[in-house]
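Hello forum,

I keep getting stuck at the same step: I have a sequence, I want structure tokens, and every attempt I make locally crashes halfway through. Rather than fight my setup again tonight, could one of you with a working pipeline run this one for me? It's a single chain of 143 residues.
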Amino acid sequence: MSPGSRVAAACERRGADVVVRACLDLLAGRESEPDVVEALGGDHARQLLAQGVPEVHAYWLRVWGARGLLYAWHAARDADVDAGLAAATADPHWRVREMVCKVVAKRVRGDVLEAVLPLRDDPVERVRRAAGRAVVRVTAAGS
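Reply #2:
Ran it on my machine without issues. Output:
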């Protein structure tokens, strides 16, 4: 099952607000409901949760939290999402920063643009590219 399909199913079961809140918790490094974490991360999440998440792999939870926001949204949480995305642009792991840029681009989050701009000079090429796409998409939309 694709990440989008898993997240859609979780939204049907638990509600989009619950899933978005779980995404924000994970993105901020907080714990969340295991069933939602499994929906966001699939088999990999199931394995990590079963064995306990080693610190070296904890960034995956933040990546999955951000990725979930590609597929789940709740308009009442816009300000919370924007704040969470902006804060995560400073995440120490490049995969989190890259995924945040993808969410900003897909969701056209103009209020996060200022936090994304410096990522165009990120040391990791994939982050730079994702940031560039986010900047182009948001500015083209006039957000």
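Helices lie at 3-14, 16-27, 34-51, 59-71, 78-88, 94-107, 113-116, 125-141. If your local run keeps crashing, start a new thread with the error log.
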